[in-house]
Automatic annotation (TrEMBL):
Domain Peptidase M24 residue range list: 172-377
Gene3D superfamilies the record matches: Creatinase/methionine aminopeptidase superfamily (3.90.230.10), Creatinase/prolidase N-terminal domain (3.40.350.10)
Organism lineage string: Bacteria, Pseudomonadati, Pseudomonadota, Alphaproteobacteria, Hyphomicrobiales
Entry-linked CDD domains: APP_MetAP
Organism superkingdom: Bacteria
Residue ranges occupied by any Creatinase N-terminal domain in the UniProt entry: 18-164
InterPro entries for this protein: Creatin/AminoP/Spt16_N, Creatinase/aminopeptidase-like, Creatinase_N, Pept_M24, Peptidase_M24B
Protein name: Xaa-Pro peptidase family protein
Organism of origin: Sinorhizobium numidicum
PANTHER family xrefs: AMINOPEPTIDASE, AMINOPEPTIDASE YPDF
One Pfam family this sequence matches: Peptidase_M24
Length: 395
């Protein structure tokens, strides 16, 4: 195995090293081994290897990128990647002083990380890892070859590092939201009586792809049904449509929901969507830097309780960025399993939050708005702020 690192030209790390050093000190971590795709992408300044963008598996193993970062010593950093990434490095050098583009699986990647840790004198250190994103065979190899090392869960540390978005990240998140909104509105406008859920979802995939997004999912309902999976169900006159989609722009997530109707919305539909909108607006009114996330939640839940449809309506908000649920974590196990540890802390400018109100009406169907807010000093900026009423399908 070739463990000779390729040297890169001197470059500044593309993230706040002082913040990362502080977070590592708080977590009692000497050196990080980041292995998740989203965190390696973040630590590499947005880079993601296209060959494994859709699937990690290859042969008998899988792709395992590793970024090694020592607290206070960015000059000791390394990137461990696949052999084919040598070409990527030649064209656009990675910032890390050492680059080991020599792996085909998990064990050779872990072995190269071990050799690098030994070289920088950290073989017996407190090593931060991402347990949910470190294969068991790679962890076993690390443990067997790093005698005296103590492994620490660094998941929280890396989540904190990404919580405040840079202007460049905010621009990507905004563009993702705008392009998804355009795609959803175009899809609704093209759908007509008889269009099936499967056909509408495929149309959205094409709309997003043609706009430069990586399509991730579409959750779609028609009529009175609350089932959001693809099916042959066809859209009928007078029925509602909810379209909830996640698309990815250069690694950053857009996640919104908009409503359609085949024909003119009747008075009841107007009232139901107005209830959802009132709950959303109650949350928006509390969104600003310095306010606690719990203030948004309390305001929305107060409005929800006064709603005529409260018995079958739910409010939820969550942080988002490189992944669809990240810091700030505002609600506990609702519905994704994590603790709302940030609910009582202050929101900070640069945080991005998804705000969603979902009504499961027993007769009219699935009625929902989901919006994306970037927290600012004086309030918020909404991304994709269009099509929030009833959008008509094709005549």
């Amino acid at each position: 195995m070739d463990i000779s690192p390729r040297k890169t030209r001197a470059a500044e790390p593309p993230f706040d090293t002082a913040k990362l050093d502080r977070l590592m000190e708080e977590a009692d971590i000497d050196v990080l081994l980041a292995t998740s795709k989203h965190n390696t992408q973040y630590l590499l300044g947005g880079y993601k290897f296209i060959f494994f963008a859709a699937m990690d598996a290859i042969g008998h193993s899988r792709y395992l990128p590793i970024v090694v970062y020592e607290k206070g010593s960015p000059d000791h950093s390394a990137y461990v990647g696949n052999r084919m990434e040598g070409g990527e490095h030649q064209n656009n050098p990675f910032w890390t002083p050492a680059v080991h583009a020599a792996t085909w699986g998990t064990l050779d990647a872990a072995a190269l990380a071990v050799e690098h840790l030994k070289k920088i004198g950290k073989a017996g250190a407190r090593i931060g890892i991402e347990p949910p994103f470190l294969p068991s065979d790679a962890r076993d190899l690390l443990a067997s070859r790093l005698e005296g090392a103590r492994f620490v869960d660094a998941t929280h540390t890396l989540e904190r590092l990404r919580a405040i978005k840079t202007p460049q990240e905010l621009e990507k998140l905004k563009l993702a939201s705008e392009l998804i909104t355009d795609s959803m509105l175009a899809t609704i406008a093209a759908a007509r009586e008889g269009s099936t859920k499967a056909e509408i979802i495929e149309r959205l995939r094409r709309e997003e792809t043609n706009r430069g997004l990586h399509f991730e999912y579409c959750l779609l309902t028609l009529g009175a049904s609350h089932n959001r999976a693809a099916s042959p169900q066809a859209w009928a006159k007078g029925e509602v449509l909810s379209i909830d989609s996640g698309g990815n722009y250069h690694g950053y997530i857009g996640d919104l929901c908009r409503m359609g109707v085949l024909g003119e919305p009747d008075a009841e539909l107007e009232d139901l969507l107005a209830e959802v909108e009132a709950i959303q607006q109650a949350a928006f009114a509390k969104a600003k830097a310095g306010a606690a996330g719990s203030e948004m939640i309390a305001a929305a839940e107060k409005m929800l309780k006064s709603s005529p449809s409260a018995a079958f309506t739910d409010f939820f908000c969550h942080g988002m960025g490189l992944i669809s649920h990240e810091a700030p974590f505002l609600m506990t196990n609702h519905p994704v399993a994590y603790e709302g540890v940030d609910a009582d802390g202050p929101l900070e400018a640069g945080m991005v939050i998804s705000v969603e109100t979902t009504m499961l009406h027993p007769k009219r169907g699935f009625i929902k708005l989901e919006d994306t807010l970037a927290i600012t000093k004086d309030g918020y900026e909404m991304f994709g702020n269009r099509g929030r009423g009833w959008n008509p399908g094709a005549a």
